[in-house]
Amino acid sequence: MSKLTLEISCPSAGDGTAAAAAGADRIELCSAVFLGGLTPSAGAILEAQARLTVPFVVMLRPRRGGFCYTDLEFAEMERDAEVAITHGTAGLVFGILQKDGAVDLLRCKQLKQIAGKRASIFHRAFDIVPEPFRALDELIDLGFTRVLTSGHQQNSLEGADLIKRLVEHANGRIEILPAGGIRPNNVKEVLRRTGCQQVHLAPLQVVSEKAGRKLSLGSRSAPPDNEYEVTDTKVVEEMAEILKQF
C-alpha cells in the first residue's frame, strides 16, 4: 500500500505550520473552520506560501450556509481564486450547486480553468447533491482532482459504505477524500471500510485569553471574544503515527 495522506484543515498559516510539524502531509487553509470553513485572508495565504513546508490548498467559500451563489459572490470567488493561485496554493477547494442541488457545471468549470494545472477539489457540498454517482461523473468530466465526502451521512464512518462505492465507481479517475468525524479512535475502520488512501480532519481546541472580561462583540449567539480555536497538534501527531503504521 502506498503512503497514506493526512490532510488537516487549519484556520491560519500558523496553525498550518504547527500541523505540518506534527505530521500533516497537506494543509487545507481556511477561516472559520467551525462554520465548515470560509475563504482565508490574503495575508493568511501569503504567510502560508512563505512558511509552509508541505502543500496547501485554499478554500473558496464566501459565506456560511448554502452553496448557490449570487453573481457578486461568484465574482469574489474568482478574485480569491486568482490570489490563491498567484501565491503558491497547490489547489482550490470549492463546491457550487444549482438551486435543485445539482452541481453547477458552468461555474465549477470557470473556477477549474483558473486553477489550471493546480488541483481542483470539490468540498462537502457533494454530500447534499441528490444523485452522488451522477455528480461524481460530472466532476470527473470536468477534470477535478478529488472530492471530499462523508458519504452523505453526518460522519465518514456512517457513510463508509457509500464512500466505498464511490471509490469503486471512480476507478482511479478521481480521488475520494473521506471527511467528517474522523479521529484517532475510528480512522483505521474508516480506511478499512472505504479503501481510501487519505483522510481529512479539522482537530480543534479552544483557547481562552485571561485578560479582560468576557464579552461577545458579535451576535448574542456568538462565543465570547476572548475565546478562539487552534489546531490540536496532539491529535495530528497521533493521527500521523497511526497512518504511518497502518
Helix content: 25-40%
Number of domains: 1
CATH class: Alpha Beta
CATH superfamily label: Copper homeostasis (CutC) domain
Biggest β-sheet description: 8 strands, parallel
Count of helical segments? 8
Could you walk me through the main structural features you see in this protein, from its secondary elements to its overall organization?
It is a single chain. The chain is an alpha/beta fold and 246 residues long. The chain has one domain: TIM Barrel (Alpha-Beta Barrel). It contains 8 helices and 10 strands. The strands form 2 sheets. It has an 8-stranded parallel sheet. A two-stranded antiparallel sheet has the order 9-10. Helix 1 runs parallel beside helix 2 and helix 3 packs parallel to helix 4. The longest helix is centred in the first third of the chain and has 16 residues. It starts with a strand and ends with a helix. The model has no long low-confidence stretch (mean pLDDT 94).
Topology:
Blueprint: E1 5-10, H1 13-21, E2 26-29, H2 42-51, E3 56-59, H3 71-86, E4 91-94, H4 105-115, E5 119-122, H5 132-142, E6 146-149, H6 160-170, E7 175-178, H7 187-194, E8 198-201, E9 204-208, E10 227-231, H8 233-245
Parallel strand pairs: 1-2, 1-8, 2-3, 3-4, 4-5, 5-6, 6-7
Antiparallel strand pairs: 9-10
Helix pairs in contact: 1-2, 3-4
